[in-house]
Amino acid sequence: MKRTQLALATHGNLSLHKIASNSKDVVREFCPDDLSKELKSLELTDDNLPLQRSLGLYWNMNSDMFTFKISCEEKPLTRRGVLSVINSIYDPLGFASPVIIKGKLLLRQLSSGGTECDVPLGDLEGQKWQLWKESLSGLQDVSIPRQYVPCSLQGNVRNELHIFCDASEKAIAAVAYLRVICEGERHYVGFVIGKTKVAPTHGHTIPRLELCSALLAVEIYQLAKENLDIELQSVKFYSDSRVVLGYITNQTRRFLTYVSNRIEQILRHSTPEQWNYIRTELNPADIGTRGLTADKLQSSVWIRGPTEFLERQSIESDNASNPNTYQPEVNAYLSDVTSMHNSESESRSIACRFQQFSEWSRLVHAFGRLKTRARQQKMKRTEDSLVTFKESENFIISLVQHDVYGEEIHCIRTNKPLPKGSPLQALGPILDEEGILCVGGRLNKLRLDEYEKNPAIIPGSHHIATLLVRHHHQLLKHQGRHLTEGAVRSAGLWITGGKRLVSSVIHHCISCKKLRGKHGIQKMADLPADRLDQVPPFTNVGVDIFGPWQIITRKTRGGSASSKRWGVLFTCLVTRAVHIEIVDSLSSSAFINALRRVTSIRGKVKIFRSDRGTNFIRATDDFRIDTINVEDDTLKTFLYDSETKWILNPPHSSHFGGAWERMIGLVRNILTPCLWNQATKI
After folding, report:
1. Sign (positive or negative) of CA dihedral 303, 304, 309, 310
2. 147-335 and 529-674 share one CATH topology?
3. How far from the centroid of its chain's Cα atoms is residue 58's Cα?
4. Beta-carbon count within 10 A of 347 CB
5. Residue 661 and residue 654 in contact, taking contact as beta carbons nearer than 8 Å
6. What is the C-alpha separation between 54 and 36, in angstroms, rounded?
7. Judging by DSSP bridges, how do beta strands 158-167 and 234-239 pair with one another?
């Protein structure tokens, strides 16, 4: 360190100072100006060294331990105060991550309510926060050794890094431990680094969260590898999710983009052989997902490390004859899956693979190419080896029939009666020249094609029956059930339960739903209160203008002068009574005169409803009436003080005025025929 200090001063003109050490001999080698502030005035003969602070961590130089100091400053009982307290705990290595994660989860719960940052917390939330804040005082009793292990990291027999990961609905966590095997078969386990993160509130399943925790474990490994200046003989990862282990060890299946991207990052820095299974109760990362109180942190597995588990794993690894053997739990699980997969593969016929096809033509073409290739390999030449479409169809139908009706086919070939309870009893099945099971009958002497007299039997429960119905339904351009069923019969196919299957296919057909789907019916809202009030007629009125009609106003030398007249309809919103006034223009003054005539005859009106015609809006200003615009969030307070309100509908919303629009339609239907031949006489 002295040489480094001298080199920096000589070649870089830099002063290396604020030096601290728990060794008094090292401190004596430096002048007091180069020491830290706490050591400058210290008498080295004193046995007690001061508490050294660095980047928020406290180092007890007497015991060579890291400790925590919790601020006693009171913060406001708000979201801002909660965030301030959580961020005041500086823990870069993750010693207290299980304690801090509980505060972060509480903060997320407070944030989900949508309250402001400075709004005081409720009684229940405030009580939870106070309990957690008071428990932080237990962190001051936690002491973590500065050294990873009691022995030196150089010259050991073996250095191993073990990373554990886990996830829950609330949080994900990963923690790394260094296992050192010294001379004399002494084993030590030390905490390296740990991290916890709050899980997203929605949109993630548990397997995906477990995958995110595995990615966090790889990120921790990269961080430890860059900063640990030692050679690691072994690096192992542990997860209690068999789904994630299946993702990582998979070599054939393709996953969704979300999964494949994270698997790619994991395998970029690790290999499938490094991943192992661990039971949940033995996983130390499980503590990081559930949280822990500060008074239990010192004695938890999170700090001490899974010493017994790692020692047992080491013994099992040494006793294993095969170095590539999985852990016992994973090995048993994978062997069960492998044996199950092999037994299923042996029992499944090739007909079960038809489930992978969604179109009949693709299935036929695929087997046609496969059969053509096999025939070419067998005949050693390419001529006369092409398989036709019909030949491929017959081959597929034959495979399915042997898979479903194998017992019936055997009985027919051996001239035995069909088994009792067979679904083909009523069809009188026969075998044609190509060995396909067909419907029997009494039409053998009819001059028709064989496929029309004896159609092939297709099991309605098999996947190819759905493909065939879908194929002919698309050929008919999505016609109905009867035409589709007729097309299937005309193709020489007899599908058991065909009517029900055809109806099911058409019911699930997207194109048919678009073409023939029922239109949605809008559910009407409740009637406004002013249409239900028990008040005298024309207390609540709807207003609108209709027309125009051409009338003759005066005779002139050149002919007759005509002009237009409009009708103003006033309808009672409660009784539906109608009052009509005539206006000679659409001006506000003409409408105001009509309005005065109505009020003088019908009495005072409390509420007017209308659309947003310009004459209506001008009339409200001239009459000094309080106008209500329904698209405003709050009611405007006008300077006019009257007892009449005018409610205007939103722009381009004629459906808001259905009460008077319907009445206008009835009035027009009556007036139009009456005035049809009277235009020249009015």
Report:
1. positive
2. yes
3. 43
4. 8
5. yes
6. 11
7. parallel
What's the CATH class of domain 147-335? alpha beta
Distance CA 58, CA 67 (A): 5
Token pair belonging to 414: 């051996």
| pLDDT tens-digit map of 251-294 | 777 788 888 889 999 999 999 999 999 998 999 999 999 988 88
Q: If DSSP codes are grouped into helix, strand and coil, which group holds residue 648?
A: strand
**How far apart are alpha carbons 536 and 514 in whole angstroms?**
50
Domain locations along the chain: 50-141, 147-335, 398-516, 529-674
- What are the tokens at 242? 């068999």
Q: Which residue do the tokens 């548990």 mark?
A: 206
Strand order in the sheet with 437-438: 430-431, 437-438, 456-458, 493-495
Q: What is the phi/psi pair of residue 286, to 5°?
A: -65, -30
List alpha helices for 454-556, DSSP H: 463-475, 481-490, 498-508, 510-516
> Which tokens is 171 given?
């949080």
CA atoms of 474 and 509, how far apart (whole Å): 10
Structure tokens at 28: 């004596």
DSSP-assigned letters across all residues of 225-285: HHH--S--SEEEEEES-HHHHHHHH-SS----HHHHHHHHHHHHH--GGGEEE--GGG-TH
Decide: helix, strand or coil at residue 591: helix
What do you get for the CA distance between the two ends of the chain, in Å?
Answer: 116
8 A C-beta contact, residue 385 and residue 397: no
Cα–Cα distances (Å) from 180 to 191, 467, 607, in that order, read: 12, 63, 88
Q: Answer yes or no: are the C-beta atoms of 581 and 598 closer than 8 Å.
A: yes
For 470, 480, 486, 507, 583, the CA distances from 515, given in Å and listed in that order, are 16, 11, 21, 12, 49
Indicate the fold that domain 398-516 takes in CATH: Endonuclease III; domain 1 (1.10.340)
Strands 559-572 and 540-556: antiparallel
| Candidates 3.20.20.70, 3.40.50.11030, 3.30.420.10, 3.40.50.720; CATH matching 529-674 | 3.30.420.10
Element (DSSP H or E) covering residue 289: helix 285-290
Tell me which residues of the chain have a pLDDT lower than 70.
37-48, 50, 54-56, 113-114, 314-349, 380-387, 554-560, 614-643, 677-682
The helix/strand/coil state of 158 is strand
**CA 125 – CA 133 distance, rounded (Å):** 12
Other Cβ atoms within 10 Å of 249 Cβ, number: 14
What is the C-alpha separation between 580 and 568, in angstroms, rounded?
A: 6
How far is Cα 50 from Cα 27, in angstroms, rounded to an integer? Answer: 13
**Omega of the bond prior to 650 within 30 degrees of 0, cis?**
no
